[in-house]
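Reply to dn_fold:

You asked what the input looked like. This is it:
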Amino acid sequence: METRIESSAASCPAIAPNVPSTPAERVAMAFFGSSGTLRPTIVAICAEPGMGREDVMSRVLALARAQGARVVRRDFRDATPGAACRSLVRLAKQLSEGGSVVAVGIYELPPSDESQVVRQARAIRRMRDAGAAVLLVVRPEARQLLEALPERLSIAAETLLYSPAQLGGERASQAVLRVTRGIPRLVRAVSTATRDSLDSELPLEYYDALASLLESALRPSLSDEERRLRLAIILLGGASTSELREVLGTLHDDLLASLGDGAPLFGLARDLTVFNCLSGAVPGALSTCLRRVAPTSALFPDVASACLSHLVERGRIARASILATLPECVPALPVVAEHAAEFIDAGECRLVLHAAEVAEGLDEGDRSRIRTVVRALDTHGACPLPREMTTPPGDGSALGLLVGSRRLLQGRVPSPGLDIRASGELGRRLAAHVAACSLMLRGAFSVALGMLLGTPEEAGRPCVSGALLAIDRDLAQMLAGGSLTGADEAVERAGEFIRRRPLRGLSGCLVIHDLVRAALGSVGARGEGLGGVALGHERSADPVVQVVALLAGAFADLWGGSVAGALVRATRAESVARQFDSDYLARLALLLADVSRFVLGDDMAPRVAEEPRDDLDEVTTLVWEVMLTAEGERLVAASPRDEVPWDALWLIRALLACPREISAGLLEHMPARWRRALPRPKPASREPEPPVSEPPRAPEPAFPEASKPVRVSLLGGFALSVRGRRVPEERLNRRNTKSMLTYLVLHGGRAKRFQVAEQVWPDCDYTLGFGRVYQATTALRSIVAEVDDTLSLFVSSRKSGEVTIDMGLVSCDVPEFRALAREAVDSHDAERSLECAQAAERLYAGDLYLPPSDATGFVASVRAELKCLYADAMVEGSAAALELGRDRTAVRLAENAVMADEMREDAVSALVRALTACGREADAARERRAFEGRVARLARRGRGSRTRDARRGGEARPEHAGTP
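and this is what came back:
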């Protein structure tokens, strides 16, 4: 950055633009001149607070003191103009009496009237004439004093900014300059942050510094016109100056020019046509700093209201939502009500409801309409909707489309021939969601996917319509073709957005997506965990969610062998889905019910689909052909077409995982093109019983969260999840909740109250300890109830004096690890031993979590036991891997054992054997020598301690000589 020094009478040698000098060094060059020695001069710095002015002055005066000059400093931050005048006059008189070389620092002279400015300028000249070097620091509102000193050297405000060279070069400084613009106070606030963190999350110190700068930018010492201008820029964030003129009514160019010269915080362009304030350039800046701006906004309520209206008209809804929380924006709330759909799309349902309640001049019909829509979007199940919206389901208004999205979860689908017209980007996105969901409820997943892929995503900000489209797109991709893709970040962000806002009425879309993903992910895994996930939604108040949950549970029952349960669930699903406008889900439920009856051995009359047939009908025809052929009959109807039913491939995959009675026949009768379209079709039969000589296999830990609703992870740290949702750490740090839960889970889920009190609260008596136990259990109940209020985690009885956790609801990684590790040690099958050892390795993320309170040492003993068991499993797994010829795996497992306990000889021996098998004899010898050295050091320490004990005993004997 090039340093600019302005003066009407003299100038200083220019500093090279790329010299990596600090702001203090650049000012010192002007203060001391090219000779580098102190000389009579007046140097003035006019800049905003936060620009490092005081630090620069201190450093420059320190350099003058180092040259032997006498330093005099005056700070007038809290002085009145009159007091400042008198002080300067006295100081000038003292300096004129002569003496040594003097450097004078004058800081923060207050704005003064014309007569006082004349006296101040006269005193400063008198100091300079007496041979003093004067460094003057003032705020922009006191620039009148500088105009009275034309002979001064003026330091431009940009001289005080940090340059890219100071921040580590061009590339490294881009992220810092983007959020600080070189302002010293902001640069210091982000000095501890890394470059990557600046792109994702700024430190709290930065927001504190920015809030302080914004507050000082609106200081009372400025004129009202300046404060109004600055307030408008801060609230708008970024816009053109013509828009700024529309908000303020009148705008003086000289005020804009002064901001452009010395206030980088506001980001005015050099031609003064646009601005980009840091309050708009930094994410979350306005919401974080609004509290510090609010007092000034209350003084100029018309500015805040005008800014709110302008932001809404320009479509900047997220920023307008923040601004609407100011009390002075109440007169502008009718604008929020007029754009209710846009604010709902931003997730601001409560703001819209508040605006509808308090906005003046709003039609009562519109007020009631908005109120009903917002409450419908925040309500599960059946809810009243505005009558004018229920009659034409293709209402193209944004509010009408939001209601249409809500009605889809009740099974109400627009007719196929209805043309849903919508205006604006929001309307088009919502219309695409309604149309796509209507197609998917009819089973046309490929058509829905094609339409969704052609719909542009919302790139500017997170919103309801964008979240719904992301969910729809991933759901259609899973069901069109039957392949399960990886987790989509867009869907995760969409789910987080919907869960954190009052949009319970639309959360059913997310539940359906999660159920479908869980079902397709459980194909071939005997439906493990799927039934528990589906059970939580089988009584959902949204009929479509209820039907999808029942169908997912039916599939889980079929895959797991509980055919009677599948029949019950499929029959319930069909009875509910029969009320929908589309019969796709009802036909699917009927097909599952028929498959269940066939597996159970019931007699059924064939159901033949009529023309025209969709992909579900084609699969239904194939299933009936299989079922009747198995009973010796023949289906008198057209056979399945040869074209691949892409929209039902997911169903074929699911049916191929059913019992062999149906899956084997499907593969036999399936057209060849269907079979080629499937990714590895294999009939899923019931697993045979394990041989008597082999112990039963331990449960696979692939999807532990899905098996039981509550998951406690203790290896490598503490984590608690309820229905797959992680409970924040801060919620568990209260009332020793983690300590108690850790103890109970490791204790088998049951312990006496006095045992819990002695373990977690050893300093309390039993009366107080029992009370603490009750408080902790209550806290845990409330944490679980926030996610699912149907779960009852504790089964406690005051008579028994026990605290009992229902372990049927809780899974934990510790017993899973124990089972895998013990099977790895005990199994006589090398393949099974290696498989279990590798599973135990994946599960052992670290040593057992040690809670803050472990008074009895119970958890510490379990921790030592698990560490030893881990080492045993790794040693046996290494031996099994060597036996199977997997030398590198053997090395890795043996290294794990040595890391767990470096003093175990069997672990070191396993590592030496594995390294030798890999041809790494030198490494094997080094490991053996290192182990022998550790053993020798331990032996020497043992002998040294015994010698010291003996010496202490010898010194103590004379005192007790003669004692028997």
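Residues 1-20, 387-396, 681-706, 953-964 have pLDDT under 50 and may be disordered.
Hope that clears it up.
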